[in-house]
Description:
Structural class of chain A: alpha+beta
Order of helices and strands of chain A: HEEHEHEEEHHEHEHHEHEEE
CATH superfamily of the largest domain in chain A: PurM-like, N-terminal domain
Distance between the termini of chain A: 34 Å
Strand content of chain A: 25-35%
Oligomer: homodimer
Radius of gyration of chain A: 21 Å
Number of strands of chain A: 12
Number of helices of chain A: 9
Shape of chain A: globular
Largest interface: A-B, 76 and 77 residues
CATH architecture of the largest domain in chain A: 2-Layer Sandwich
Helix content of chain A: 25-40%
Amino acid sequence: MSQEFEAEFVRWLSERLPQSKNLTLPMGDDGALLAPTATDINPAQIVATTDLLSDGIDFRLGEVDPQRIGRKALAVNLSDLAAMAARPLAVVMAIALPSQSSAGWLPAKYHSQSDRPQGLLELAKSLYEGMLPLAEQFNVPVAGGDTNLHDGPLVLSGTALGTVTREGPLTRSGGQPGDRLLVTGTVGGSLAAHQFDFTPRIEEALQLNAAYELHAGLDISDGLAIDAARLATSSGCGAAIDLDRLPISAAARLLENPVEHALADGEDFELLLAVPPQEAAHLLAEGPLGCGLTDIGELVSQTGLWQRSADGKLAPLAPTGWLHGQPHRGSR
Amino acid sequence: MSQEFEAEFVRWLSERLPQSKNLTLPMGDDGALLAPTATDINPAQIVATTDLLSDGIDFRLGEVDPQRIGRKALAVNLSDLAAMAARPLAVVMAIALPSQSSAGWLPAKYHSQSDRPQGLLELAKSLYEGMLPLAEQFNVPVAGGDTNLHDGPLVLSGTALGTVTREGPLTRSGGQPGDRLLVTGTVGGSLAAHQFDFTPRIEEALQLNAAYELHAGLDISDGLAIDAARLATSSGCGAAIDLDRLPISAAARLLENPVEHALADGEDFELLLAVPPQEAAHLLAEGPLGCGLTDIGELVSQTGLWQRSADGKLAPLAPTGWLHGQPHRGSR
């Protein structure tokens, strides 16, 4: 972007972004300096995840308040940390803003009316304003970043860093046949609002990982069906889902074929966990989570994705889910 | 991208990316797990930097071998670590590939000729193939990542993580009036080839930071003039450049006004260091760097950017440099 715009934006950011004891260098240097301070962390291990959102694929700038877009860009990255039961340390955010010359990528309300690109500056600020309440909620600084103009759609590329607690990270590969599959919250119908409003399951993941024996886990981003298949594959086994047990969201219940939406909509950002059966019974009896936790099936020795029919037999289940690069979720 | 494409690409990546003792989790989980192993690091501090490159701004996909684009995306992030004298720990790379439907963003040679997007897969592989030799040279794993299709130009968004050595990080803010300004290598003319071929000054930064007292430093990405002004501003002083001392590159010497190119071209990715005068004399006498090190001026108490004229007086110097979001460097 122009030097004037860049300077003004960095000045605004340095005033707007809260101080954090995890960040020990002021903005404007070549990088952010992070100093983990939590006392229960394993300092020898850092978790890094990255997730990139594009206009036309993950949101539509012309239709959505940019604060919700900024919030989502942060939330999807925090959800990846939750999937590993990592404690957020910092997020760095790179943003490519559509230059006004980009054909059609910049809605007219962000066009500048003078020689100063005030509209774009407001857009950049709004994206950050959307991130900050969520960042504050999880006490995670948004560190550094890179904000550019380019001749294309709005792109937000976040990288979240987290620290591993004493219990170690939650991975996808530790599941065993017989493990129960537990899912937090509800699934399906994320298109209506949940894709922008969801709360990453950071606290739930830390709480469960600290108090219970979890074999494996991930966050449901592309769809319960495909993500269950991925967890099973990473663990070298299969997954059998009891379709009549799915905790279907209120939004999905309003749609035709709620079960299909629950399996395939994606962007639920709920945790899917593989838990040894006795521990699962213990966990479900104690019910420690306010968001709820539902037993939806189990890992099985037959690789693949299955649904269990009424007579207990396994029938193939398609690993449906959202296909990256397909038309925007909003136009499905 | 399509699940088939994504699965094939992740499979290729898991086989192609080398093992690293810094990475303790196989690919395909929700995040990368990093475990610093160097013995001279300060485990309480992690450096994070991010840099996003877009087609049309930082390169032209239709004109440049994608291996050089991938290499550049990694190298610019490593250069930011060098600017802080941090030892590379890992890089995560998010890539947005232009879907074939994107108007004009995908050169015809990458269009698939069948129902499988083989062309795009080859493009994604080539980007990584360009990164890997550089990653190997600096022993830095390319961890995790996120590869998507979108309806826009090729975007590569890298985040580099580094560890701080015992001497602490090199920042922009520690310079003092009287410090000599030293620059590694040569500057100017990066457009010809250097923007793709440069070697990040990681080793030089670690070597100098370990053996000498450096007050401040950065990497010259936007132009010697504007970056010298930034270093001075961060340090609360001004910078005076002796224009007749600039180490002008051979490429810039072929152009009209080589001095202007040396000041303003940017993408030199050389280190600009502020060093106390006696230490600078010591350092220049010892000449420890193969790439050379040149005294080009000093920090002064008058804020602003200055050139020193023959009679020793200061005259204003424009903080020229590359403007992000301007037309591609290649079309200047």
